[in-house]
From TrEMBL:
GO molecular function ontology, one term from the record: shikimate 3-dehydrogenase (NADP+) activity
One annotated GO biological process: chorismate biosynthetic process
Keyword Amino-acid biosynthesis: yes
EC number: 1.1.1.25
Domain of life (superkingdom): Bacteria
Protein name: shikimate dehydrogenase (NADP(+))
Catalytic reaction(s) noted: shikimate + NADP(+) = 3-dehydroshikimate + NADPH + H(+)
Length: 263
């Protein structure tokens, strides 16, 4: 039950009706036995800065999730941002400190990696191929590097974006071998599709699935459909597959922990 002492959390988005975060995070709060509630907050881009000021003033606000289209703008609106989120150029979770300061971090890619680890598929030391170089790819690339992936190849339709992302990751994690390359899964242990290919029926494959070998780990972040044509092909070829929904629970836990952490 919501009472006067319930801590308030939010998700900021535009549009808002499609967000699933309230269901997922309120279930997390229940599981943790926290007196907290997360509500949808529909805010357009033009009012985002005003909203952040209100959030600073709102003493019973614990934090909020930031999603489309505000993740990039949120970086400069927070009072403090983790070095990784600043480098990725996006914030998806903000904690409000007791003094009102807003502290942002990024968990999109970390949720994905935590989902892999929970299945015993730790990317540490493995040779990974990341297909795609957009916002989702950037979060995953940094999260893979953060846990010590052995070698990372980034392939993208627009090669320049892959090169740019590869150089950003290797600047931030100089010890990790990162390069732009072809979408050829041969001699990789882990292959990740972070493009939007697979969301629509009839989409092309993000890479040549005929080249997949048994035991390779093939993962992606597409939620709908739950099993893409690419993952079905990978399954037929004996690969270990990880569908997009796996990262959801892990991401919710990481975001919940970050927002409710008392510093
Ligand atoms: P998101 O933030 O969800 O990652 P994005 O930044 O628009 O979205 O990135 C979409 C990714 O899917 C990009 O890597 C994009 O490739 P380009 O950089 O060449 O645009 C990739 N993508 C989308 N449609 C594609 C298609 N038809 N073929 C190949 N790659 C595609």
């Amino acid at each position: 039950m919501i009472t006067g002492s319930t801590r308030l959390f939010g998700i900021v988005a535009d549009p808002i009706a499609q967000v699933r975060t309230p269901e997922v995070l309120n279930a997390y709060f229940d599981k943790q036995g926290l007196d907290a509630v997360l509500v949808p907050l529909h805010i357009g881009a033009a009012q985002l800065a005003v909203a952040f000021d209100v959030f600073r003033a709102l003493k019973n606000l614990g934090g909020f999730i930031v999603t489309v289209p505000h993740k990039t703008a949120a970086v400069d609106l927070c009072d403090e941002v983790s070095a990784a989120a600043r480098e990725i150029g996006a914030v998806n979770t903000v904690r409000r400190e007791p003094d009102g300061r807003l502290v942002g971090d990024m968990f999109d890619g970390r949720g994905f990696v935590a989902g892999l680890k929970a299945e015993g598929l730790d990317p540490a030391g493995r040779r990974a191929l990341l297909v795609g170089a957009g916002g989702a790819a950037a979060a995953i690339a940094f999260a893979l590097a953060e846990v010590g992936v052995g070698r990372l190849t980034i392939a993208n339709r627009t090669r320049a974006r892959a090169e740019e992302l590869a150089s950003r990751v290797s600047r931030f994690y100089p010890a990790i071998q990162v390069e732009a390359g072809d979408a050829d899964p041969t001699s990789h242990d882990l292959i990740v599709n972070s493009t939007s290919l697979g969301m629509k029926t009839g989409d092309a494959m993000p890479f040549d699935t005929e080249l997949l070998q048994p035991e390779q780990i093939v993962a992606e972040i597409i939620m709908k459909p739950e099993m893409t044509a690419m993952l079905r092909q990978a399954t037929l070829r004996g690969c270990v597959v990880q569908a997009g929904r796996h990262m959801l629970d892990h991401q919710a836990r990481l975001m919940g922990e970050f927002m409710t952490r008392v510093s």
